[in-house]
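At this stage, I put together one protein's amino acid sequence and its C-alpha cells, which the following lines show:
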Amino acid sequence: MAPKPRQSRSALPGKDEILKFIKSQPKRVGKRDIARAFKIKGNSKIGLKRLLREMADEGMIAKNRKRLTSAAHLPPVGVLVIKRQNDDGELVAEPANWDYDKTPYPPLIVIVSARSKHGSDVAGVGDRVLARIEKVDGDNDATYEASVIKRLGQDLSTMLGVFKSALDGRGIIEPIDKKQRNALMVPAADVGTAKTGDLVKVELVQKKAYGPAQVRIKSTLGKIDSHRAASRIAIEVYDIPNEFPEAVLKQAEAEKAPGLKGREDLRKLPLITIDPSDARDHDDAVHAQTDTSSDNPGGFIVTVAIADVAAHVTPGSALDIEAINRGNSVYFPDCVVPMLPERLSNDLCSLRPDEDRPALVCRMIFDAQGNKISHKFMRAMIRSHAKLSYQQAQDAIDGKTTSEWLEPVLKPLWQAFEALLKAQKKREPLGLDLPERRIVFTKTGEIEAIVLRERFDAHKLIEEFMIQANVAAAQTLAENKQPLIYRCHDNPSQEKTHGLIDFLKTLNLKLPAGEVLRPMHFNRILEQVKGGELESLVHHSVLRAQAQAEYSVENYGHFGLNLKTYAHFTSPIRRYSDLVVHRALIATLGGADAPQQDLEEIAEHLSMTERRAAKAERETVDRILSSFLMDRIGAEFAARISGITRSAMFVELNETGADGIIPLSSLRRDRYIANEGLYALSGISSGETFKLGDQVTVRLIEAAPVAGALRFELLSEGVYEKPVRGGFKKPRSAKRTKPKRKRR
C-alpha cells in the first residue's frame, strides 16, 4: 500500500517514504508525481529536487531523465566492465549485464583494487572482471566499491585506434584508450586502404584467449599526426554531432535577413563588440551613456544588444531540432564545432561592424552606486559601429594606443563599469579567478607556444554587463510567469564543505563550521592567501568544493554569482538555453507565443551536452600537450601536486600546465597511504609526506599523445612527519636528518 501523503505543504517527506511511494506505483514516476502525492508546492519543490538528487547519489533511486525508479542492488560478487577513468585517476565500472531498458543509468562503481586475487593481473579500461562488490554510503562519487578477484578478458565493441601495417599484410591497431594496453589485429583481407599512421574506428570481430583480438575497420578519420587529430578523437569518443544534415544546411542557406518592421531602429546608437582577437562570431554588442535624468544623478544607461537568433531558428524546424541535439558549441584549441551552421553563426546572426542586424536589446538604468533601477527589453535593428578585441579596448583605455572610439564609447563604458563594481562588491560573488592557458599554433597547425591568457578589465567589463542582462532576462520572465530554463549553481554539499574545512585547518586557515556558508566566507580565505605560496592550492581546493552549475526549470539561485535569479540570455549563437529565453522574452513583448516544449527534459539534456563539451575540450588539450612534450622525455620539470588518490599522485607542470600521473607503485622508498580527506600521502614506515599543492621536481618518463597521457618520476622528497605505523625509518635517499625516536 502506498504511504499516505502528508497534509503539510512545507515539510518534505522522508527518503523512506518517497522510496515506498515509488515502489508502490505500477509505472515509473516523476518528480511532479511525487510533488503531487505529498502536496509539495512552490519553493518546497527546490528542496524536493535536492532530496531526490541525494537519493540518486546514494543509490536509493535510479534516474532516467525525469522518470524515477527504485535502484537495483548488486550482488556481493559479480562481473563488471571497467568503462573509464575518472578525474581522480580511479577506474569506474558498470555491471556487465545491466538492463539498460529497465534502468538506463547503472550505479557508479569505483574499483578500489585493480589487481587480481593472486596479484598477477592488473585490470584496466575495457576489461571484464569478476569482482567483490560492496555498497558504500553515497558521497556524490560512488554507490559501490569493488575489488578485482579475476580479470576475465577485454570487452571491446567500437573503439578508436592508430593503424600500423605489419610485414605479413595484416594491420595492428594501437588503441586510443589510456588504459587499453593490448594491441588489436586486422586481418590482411580487411586492411583495405588503411595506411600506417591513420586514425581509424574499429569494431570487434573475434576475441581470442591468447594473442590480440581481431577487429574490423569501420572508417578512417585521417592521419594521427595531423594537427586536427586531437579534436577529431574527442569528437568521436564523446559522439559530438559534427556534420550538419543536408536539410539543416539547406534551411540555413535559404534564410534571409529580416526587415525593420516590428523593431526599434537603433542603428545610429554607437554599439560596439568587444571579443577575443580570434573570434569569428559576435553575438553581443554594448553601449553606455550617462543618465541625464535629474532623478538619477551620476547614473548610467547601459544597452546590451544580443543577436536575434530566434528570427532565423523557428521552433520545430530542422535548424531547431539540430540545435537542441547539439545543445551548445564545442570549442577546441584548434577548431570549433558550432551549434548553428556558419551561414548563421558567422554571417546572419553575427553582429559584424557596419551591417544591419536584428537584435534583442536589454536597456538597463543604474544609479551612481551600480544598483539597477529599471530595465526594458525590445526587438530592434542595430548596427555595430566597431569591432574591438579585449586587448585593443584595454590599450585604448590605458593610453597605450589612440582610438576614435575612446571618448564617445569606451570611456562611458568604463565609467558605467566602475559604478557596477560598487554594487558587485556589496553583492560579493565568489572570487575565484584562476589563470587560464592558451595554446598558440603556427599557420601550419604546429604548436608554437603555450601561454597564460591575459586577463584585462575589458574582460570583466563585458562579463559584468552580460551578468546584468542575464539577471534582467530571468526577472522579466519570472514576473510575467513565462516558463524558462534557469542557470543554477547549488550551494556546496555538506560533505565537500566538511572536507575543505578539515583540509584548510592543516594550512592554519579557518572556515566557519556549523553555519551555512556564503561566497563571502570563501572570499575571506582567498584574500588571506592572495599573492602567497598557498594561493594556487587554496583556489583549486575551493573550486573542487563547489557544486556543478546546471540548467533547471526550478529556480534555486546561483551560489557562485550570489544571485537569487539567473538565466542565460547573452549567447544564443552557441547555447540553446539562451534561445529558449529569447523566445520567452519575445512572447512577453507581444510576439509569437513561446513554443510548447518539455523544458525540464531540455534542461537536463543541455546540462549533459555542456558537461560533454567540457570533458572533450579538456581531453583534447591533454592530447595536444602530450604531443608537445613528446621530444622532452627524460627532462626535469618543476610541478605542483594537483591530486592524490589511492593509487596515484597527479602533478601539473608549472611551465605548460600539462597534467600527468605518478603511480604510487613507482615510489620505491616506502609504501604510501593516501589520506584523501586531507589531500595527503604518507609513508607507512618513514612518515615521508606529500600534500596537495606541494612544489616538486619530476622527470618525464613517458608521453602518449594518442591517449593524452604523461607519466612522471618523482625526484623530490617530502616532509618527514609521524609515521603511519611503526618506528621512524629514514629512506636511504633522504638527505635531511631527524632525531631518533625512543622505542616504547
In short: The domain at 158-224 is CATH 2.40.50.700 (OB fold (Dihydrolipoamide Acetyltransferase, E2P)). Confidence is low (pLDDT under 50) at residues 1-10, 726-744. The longest helix spans residues 599-628.
